[in-house]
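Schema walkthrough. Field components (list of strings):
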Amino acid sequence: MVLKSFIEVHPDSHFPIQNLPYGVFKRETASDPRPAVAIGDYVLDLSVLASAGLFHGPLLSNSDCFNKSNLNKFLELGRLAWTETRTTLQKLLSAEESILRDNASLREKALVPMSQVQMLLPIAIGDYSDFFASKHHAYNCGVMFRGPENAINPNWFHIPIAYHGRASSIVISGTDIIRPRGQGHPAGNSLPYFGPSHKLDFELEMATVVGPGNELGKPVDVNEAANHIFGLVLMNDWSATTLSPWIVTLDALEQFALDAPQQVSIVPTGQKDAHVLTRSNFRHLYWTITQQLAHQTINGCNLRPGDHLGTGTISGPEPDSYGCLLELSWNGQKPLSFGGTSRTFLEDGDEVIFTGYCKGDGYNVGFGTCSGKILPSLPEELLQFSVVSASNCT
Amino acid sequence: MVLKSFIEVHPDSHFPIQNLPYGVFKRETASDPRPAVAIGDYVLDLSVLASAGLFHGPLLSNSDCFNKSNLNKFLELGRLAWTETRTTLQKLLSAEESILRDNASLREKALVPMSQVQMLLPIAIGDYSDFFASKHHAYNCGVMFRGPENAINPNWFHIPIAYHGRASSIVISGTDIIRPRGQGHPAGNSLPYFGPSHKLDFELEMATVVGPGNELGKPVDVNEAANHIFGLVLMNDWSATTLSPWIVTLDALEQFALDAPQQVSIVPTGQKDAHVLTRSNFRHLYWTITQQLAHQTINGCNLRPGDHLGTGTISGPEPDSYGCLLELSWNGQKPLSFGGTSRTFLEDGDEVIFTGYCKGDGYNVGFGTCSGKILPSLPEELLQFSVVSASNCT
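Field assembly_structure (string):
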C-alpha cells in the first residue's frame, strides 16, 4: 500500500510524503531562517517539531540542528540521523498518525503555505567543484572545438574531470542574473575588447550535496562514498550558479536508481509562456556521483558538510536531450525556433526554468524548479571603473 | 622620532609597534579562539581590551567583532574601522601611555607570551583564487613547457590569469602536509598508474586578504580596490595551501610601497638546520594586488570579507630569486646542493619555511613565518580504497 499523508497532496506534486526534501525558509513576517521539509504545498518547520519534542530518536532527540539557519549541522550528523529523521517525519505526516494531524495549534505553527515563505540557500557552502561527467556532452564539445577525431581526450576515461567553482556566487532559484562582462578577442591581430558576454548559456546539471566530510590527507573509498552524500539538487551553471531550493535525499531517490528525467524550459523575453527546449536524464552520466566524490578526495583533498559537487552538463545521446545551448544550437550555427521566436544563446530578459522528477507508482519524487532571469549588463555610465589593462607595476 | 612601545621589542623582531598584524590565537589552557595583534614576543588579546572598554572610537566602541573566533566581522567593517583600531592600539602600547603599561592586572590578562599560544586560521575563508602574476615565473614555466618562442601567451599581458583554489584545504603554518597521490602517465601507450606525487614542490606566494566585499554583478573599480584589501600573508601553494598566521595590514605596509623581500628555507629530512634556497621580492609582481582584485570582480563576481587572492609564485629575474623548485631545479634537470644534500623536488620529511619582512628605519615590519613539513603518503594497506577507474554507469 502506498504511504499517504493526512495533508492533501496532488498526484502531480513533486513533494509527496515519499519525498520530503530539505530546505531553509523564511516566513513573510520577519523571523529567522529555519530548516524545513516540503510536503505538498506546505513547508513543515522542523524547528517547531523539535521544540515540541517530536524527535524522539537517539540521534536527534538532543540535537539543536533544526534551530540553525542552515542545514550544515544536520548534514554533518550522517546517514543514520537522516534516516531516523525521515522515519519520524513520515510517521508524523502519515494519515494514520494523530499527533500532528489532530493538533490544530501545532499544525498552525508547523505547516506554512509555500506561497507565504521565501526559500533561501539552505547551506553555507564551503566549496563546490563542477565535474564534466556526461560523455555525450564531452563528445559534443570536443567535436565543436577539436573535431570528431580528437573529441574526447584519452584521460577523460581514466579520471572524472572537474574544475573548482566559486562558492560566493551560488544563488537560490529565482535570483536574477546580470549578464557578465569580460574581455573578448576578435579574429586577427586586433586588441582584445571589453564588453557584455555574447554567448551566455545555461547548463543543465545536478549537484551532489555532501554530508559528513573527510579529514585532509584521508581519501574516501568509492564504496563508502554514498555515506557522504546527503542528496541532490538541480543546478544551472551559468554566470552565477543557481540551485533549486529543495534537497532531495538519497533515501527518497534510492528506489529510482537515479533514473531522473529533467527538462529545461525558457520563457523568452516579453512572453508569458514557457517552452521546453530539451529533455535529459540523470542516468546519462558516465561517471557516477560516488565516483565523483571519491575522486575529489583521492589526492587527500578534504570535503566538509555542505560542499557541492556539480555533475557538469547532462546531455543525452539525441539532439533533443542536449543540456546547454552550446550543444542545442551547435555553437550558434543552428538557431532553435519556439513560440514565434528563436535563440542561439540567451537574450536579456529570458527566464530559464529547470525541473525534474522521478516517477513513482502513483506519485512523483520531484526536485521542484531551478529558475533565473537574465538582466542586461550594467550600463557603461554606471560602471565607472577603469578597465584593468596591461601596465607594469615594478 | 620612532614610535616606541613600553613592551621590549628586539630590533630584529617582525612585530614592533609599527606592525601590529592581526591573528587568532588559543591559549594553552582551554579557551575560545580570540583575535589578537602581535607585539614583540606577545599576543595582545583584543577581546580583553574590548571588554575593558578601551576601544572608544565611534566605529569600534559598540562592536562585538573582537569577541568572535575569527576576524571576518572586523574585516567587514572596512578601512576607517581598521585605522581607528590601529590608532587606538598604537596609543595603548606606546611607551608614554599608562593605561595598559601601569595596569599589571590588565597586562596579565591581555598580553600572552607567544610561546604559550597556538595560532589558528584567523579567518573563515569563503573563496580563494590564485593568480599567476609574476612575469618571470610565467616566462620560466613557459620556456620549460612550450619553449622560449611561446613562453608567455599574448593574453597574459591583457588580463591577470587566475584559477580558483579550494578553501577546505587551507591550513595554518606548522601543519604537516601528507604527500598527495594521484594518477600519472608514463610516456608511450601504457595505462596511467596511481601513486604518490613524484614532483612535490613549494610555491612562494603572498595572499591578499579581502576586507569588505562587493555585490554580485557590481564590479570593484581598480582605483577603489585598495579599500577592499585588509592586508597580506605569506602563502605556500603546495598540496594543501599553508598560510602564515599574522595578517600584516596595508596601513603597516604603506610606507614600503610593497617592496617586501621574502626568502624560502628548507630543513632537509633528518637534519636540524635551515638552508636558504631562494630570495625574492613582492615587487617582482607584474600585476598588482589591486589589479588582481578588480579583475576578480570585473565579470560581476562577488567577493566576501576574508576571501583570499594568492599572487601566484613570486619569482625574480635571477635564478637565485625563483620562487619554486620547478624553476630552481629547472624541472629536475639542475639539482640544488645545500647542507651536504641535494634536491630537485621535495622529499618526505623536508620542512619548508617562508619568511619575509620590510626594512624600516630601526625596525622591521615582518610577516613571521609560514612553514610545513612533508609526511609520506599513507601506506597502501591503510588506504584500502578502490581506485576510481574507467567504468560506465549507464
